[in-house]
Write a structure and sequence with these properties.
This protein is mostly helical and about 170 residues long. It has a single domain (about 10-170), classed as Ferritin (Up-down Bundle). It is about 75% helix and about 0% strand. The protein has helices spanning about 10-35, 40-70, 90-115, 120-125, 130-150, 155-170. The chain starts with 8 loop residues before the first helix and ends with a helix. One fe (ii) ion binds next to α1 and α2. One fe (ii) ion binds near residues 22, 25, 55, 58 and 102.
């Protein structure tokens, strides 16, 4: 039986690029977890580790999808993540920016799949959408709560405990 590659090259390349994007997002979260960990923010560190694991899970799904569609996944160098922030607010400002970019990226990938009438890829991509929306909203939320407490240590500890609970609830 003969078959031809069913994935359009432009779509395949964009999905392959997503492997590095998810890995980079994961590395940034690992970096933030380490930053928080050495500053006594153990709940926040746990929350970051949970997010890091989530991004690597997404990366895996893209690798599987490409291979399953007979397009061999390729791997490239990823840039070192940032490792220094002035404050938790500063770190969450970066988290917020990253999650908004990831949400936009998901939208762009679905647009591209639609441009090529690739319903299979469209369907694959939609599995990420509810979680991406929730992650983006959560990042905004945490940033807002950190802004509310400002530099107050007690407030920060409360948020840290809350993040520990959230991380545990998500299996972190
Ligand atoms: Fe992701
Ligand atoms: Fe995420």
């Amino acid at each position: 039986m003969s078959f031809r590659k069913s994935l359009n090259d432009e779509v395949a390349n964009a999905l392959n690029e997503q492997i590095c994007i998810e890995a980079s997002a994961g590395f940034l979260y690992f970096s933030m977890a380490s930053w928080a960990s050495v500053r006594g923010l153990t709940g926040m560190a746990k929350w970051f580790r949970g997010e890091a694991a989530g991004e690597l899970t997404h990366m895996n799904l893209f690798v599987d999808y490409l291979n399953d569609r007979d397009y061999q996944a390729k791997f490239a160098t990823i840039e070192a993540p940032a490792c220094d922030w002035d404050s938790p607010i500063d770190a969450f400002d970066m988290v917020r920016t990253q999650e908004h970019q990831l949400m936009q990226r998901m939208n762009d990938l679905i647009d591209l799949a639609d441009k090529h009438n690739d319903h299979l890829t469209h369907s694959f991509l939609t599995q990420f959408v509810p979680q991406q929306i929730a992650d983006t909203a959560e990042a905004d939320d945490i940033h807002d709560r950190l802004t509310l407490v400002g530099g107050d240590g007690h407030g920060l500890i409360l948020i840290d405990q809350e993040l520990a609970r959230e991380a545990e609830a998500h299996g972190g």
